[in-house]
Write a structure and sequence with these properties.
elongated; Serine Threonine Protein Phosphatase 5, Tetratricopeptide repeat; 5-stranded parallel sheet; Rossmann fold; Heat Shock Protein 90; 737 residues
């Protein structure tokens, strides 16, 4: 642990206790007790307890709107994560602490927060400049305080960082300022640290005499006041200065003192985690220093007298062996402790893994329940709105109805995006291989965005290369999701512009076609700096002149779905000039298909007899009305029942051409109802009509004897298409029999 971290820890401990006492009248006993427990655990290296106490403190302080203790909760949490080398959580906690320090408007809290962030960012050479900026803010905040310790600490940390970077001239002014401040308060801890830093400065400037003088001063103060850590730091630098000055005997004596104080530091503070790192550091330093000493001594002996060479080499060898033996013993002890710690950590990780798996299962169940509970009422909203749009008597309300349907579709898209991301994170999404018509798929996507296109005054152009096969085998659902997300983004971020959908054949390899898809717009474009960010979850491009809504999941879903296709998304964009998203897929050509291009409801009556009779099994009255009215519009005869028992009775009493079966019903559910109907040797097609995520129940649905699945709320064209497909299949089966 560096000087700058130690200084902040000790000062925040003392000052935190003082502030707790000064705020006693403003906080309840439980909040103060949690702060004390959190602080005690943190400085006793009981990090698990420190995290628990800090989180409880934060929760209670949030309830009480106690921003002062919210600061201390997040600050303690940040320090604890910092000690555990969890830099991501530490940074997040420190930033939260800074937020509440600004609310409280307390200069002491502000300089702590800025100083902690400065320590974090200066620990990584790539973020040094950010760290210095935070140090400057800490220095400015502390300058308003009368407490010399507070004013000195950020100055000392910035000087220490310059020394660490070997920027000795830049460090010197800060060291001088700190030296003047600590002389007034006569704080032995700060005096010892400052003397050590001056020793480091002069050591870097090759002024060995001055370096030794300051190290000796630091050692004197540290030994007088039993400051073990400062003694270790000072003796370490002092030994290096002596080695450089060819004072080898004194250097070895300094190293002995270094080892002595290091051992006492270990015993007094019980720093098990620091002990291992310190042991490795000592091993490296001792080896380097002893090798230097051996080479220097050998050279000196050759100059003085070659006759003494063998004796000196023997002595040095014995010393080296002695040091190695000591180090091996210490390393062995450290290794045993580390193995014990590793076993404990493994046990904790195993428990955490089990808990994570349990929570993941609960999350999946929750998403499944949310999916069903939201999609069921949305089915009624989308279905009734679609029916009302077709009612010519409501022509004057057409604009309002379109807005209502757009809002429902938008809400459904949000639900589907969140559920889709959850399934992909759980690796539940798998590609299907089913026949589909590419031209019909593109036309459906264009039609879907008609309302949004008109709202933003855009024009949508699409071009499909005549060489692209119309009928393919693949996963049309996932391909539709990819294209709808890309087109949806283009429509949303373009106003009074154009959207182009291009589909071209790149190559043919045997029975497979490599097809190039491109979605282009002339909208606001994407800055170069943001082009990687937009493919991350919950990220959005938010220019100052626009206000776009959404979850920020569309493009991440596109990226993950294309990975399933073993492809990847490519982006070309310039801010203010539009964007181009493109990708290529290898799809198998379906040479057996004779499908007609167009929407399903335009052709579904082909080859069907008049007045087809359909049984609707659904316990939701609104859903019953929607499904029945959609079917009756196309001249179907419908019978509606509200549970499985009634459905079995109706099937026993009369014949139906098709059954639409809800899954979740009171009494016997859709699965059991289907099984009982199949036991009656009925060949009637049964189609599941459900709001449940089909990936979770697909196998169970088909195992129960159902022929197909329609997910609520459904697209009416796909609904008619599924009905037609199953009725046609039933007609073909009947004709063969």
């Amino acid at each position: 642990m560096s000087i700058k971290y130690i200084s902040v820890l000790l000062i925040s401990l003392v000052s935190g206790i003082a502030f707790s006492q000064s705020k006693e009248s403003e906080s309840c006993d439980s909040i103060k007790e949690l702060l004390d427990l959190s602080t005690d655990a943190m400085y006793s290296y009981e990090y698990n307890k420190a995290i628990d106490y800090s989180l409880n403190l934060i929760e209670l302080a949030e309830e009480e709107k106690d921003y002062y203790h919210l600061y201390h909760g997040y600050n303690n949490l940040g320090i604890t994560y910092d000690e555990l080398y969890d830099t991501i959580r530490a940074k997040e906690s420190y930033e939260n602490a800074l937020k509440y320090a600004k609310i409280v408007e307390n200069d002491t809290l502000l300089w702590w927060a800025y100083n902690n962030l400065g320590n974090m960012f200066t620990s990584n050479k790539q973020t040094i400049d950010q760290g210095f900026a935070y140090y400057d803010k800490a220095i400015k905040a502390a300058s308003n305080l009368e407490d010399a310790d507070s004013r000195a600490t950020p100055l000392m940390n910035k000087g220490w960082t310059h020394l660490y970077l070997e920027e000795y001239d830049e460090a010197f002014p800060y060291l001088v300022q700190v030296e003047k401040l600590v002389e007034d308060i006569k704080d032995p801890y700060m005096l010892s640290q400052v003397a050590s830093l001056f020793g480091t400065y002069y050591l870097g400037k090759e002024n060995l005499e001055e370096s030794k003088k300051y190290y000796e001063k630091a050692i004197k103060i540290a030994e007088r006041d039993s400051l073990y850590y400062e003694a270790v730091t000072a003796y370490d630098g002092y030994a290096e200065a002596l080695f450089k000055n060819n004072e080898f005997k004194e250097a070895y004596n300094a190293l002995d003192k270094y080892i002595e104080y290091d051992a006492e530091l270990y015993e007094k503070e019980k720093l098990e985690q620091m002990e291992s790192a310190q042991a490795r550091f000592e091993t490296k330093r001792y080896r380097e220093n002893l090798e230097i000493a051996k080479r220097e001594q050998k050279y000196k002996d050759e100059v003085i007298a070659k006759s003494q060479q063998n004796s000196i080499i023997m002595i040095i060898s014995l010393i080296v062996m002695l040091f190695f033996i000591i180090l091996l013993v210490r390393n062995n002890n450290s290794r045993k402790k580390l193995i014990s710690q590793l076993k404990n950590k493994n046990s904790e990780l195993f428990s955490a893994k089990e808990e994570a798996e349990r929570l993941s299962m609960l999350k999946s169940q929750f998403f499944s329940t949310v999916s069903h509970e939201l999609r069921t009422p949305l089915y009624g909203v989308v279905g009734l709105t679609s029916l009302l749009l077709d009612d010519k008597s409501l022509k004057k309300h057409e604009s309002d109805l379109k807005s209502l349907k757009f809002s429902a579709d938008y809400l459904l898209a949000l639900i589907n995006d969140v559920l889709q991301m959850n399934k992909m994170e759980s690796k539940q999404v798998k590609l299907e291989n089913v026949p589909f018509n590419l031209h019909e798929l593109i036309l459906s996507i264009v039609n879907t965005f008609e309302f949004t296109r008109l709202q933003n005054k855009n024009k949508v152009h699409y071009n499909i290369d005549e060489n692209v096969p119309q009928n393919l085998i693949g996963d049309p659902v996932r391909l539709s999701q990819i294209l709808m997300n890309l087109v949806g983004n283009a429509v949303k971020f373009t106003e009074n512009g154009n959207i182009y959908i291009n589909v071209e054949l790149q190559a043919k390899v045997e029975d497979r076609a490599i097809i190039y898809f491109e979605v282009k717009d002339d909208g606001i474009g994407i800055p170069k700096s943001k082009q990687k960010l937009i493919f991350e979850e919950f990220s959005q491009l938010k220019p100052s002149n626009y206000n776009y809504q959404g979850t920020g999941l569309g493009l991440p879903i596109v990226k993950r779905l294309l990975q399933l296709f073993e492809s990847q998304i490519h982006l070309k964009s310039k801010e203010g000039e539009g964007s181009v998203f493109c990708f290529s897929l290898s799809l198998k050509e379906d040479k057996s298909s004779t499908k007609k291009v167009g929407f399903a409801h335009e052709v579904y009556l082909d080859n069907l007899k008049e007045k087809q009779k359909i049984l609707i099994v659904d316990d939701n009255r609104i859903n019953q009305v929607v499904t029945r009215r959609i079917l009756e519009k196309q001249n179907f005869e419908c019978v509606v029942v509200g549970n499985g028992v009634e459905a079995i009775e109706r099937v026993t009493a009369m014949d139906f051409d098709l059954i639409l079966m809800d899954l979740n019903m009171p009494g016997i559910n859709g699965m059991e109802t289907t099984q009982r109907i199949r036991n009656l040797s009925k060949d009637v097609p049964i189609v599941a009509l459900t709001a449940v995520e089909i990936e979770e129940v697909r196998n169970e649905i088909f195992a129960a004897g159902m022929n197909d699945i329609i997910v609520k709320p459904y697209d009416i064209e796909r609904f008619y298409q599924t009905i037609k497909r199953n009725l046609n299949a039933n007609l073909e089966t009947s004709s063969r029999n």
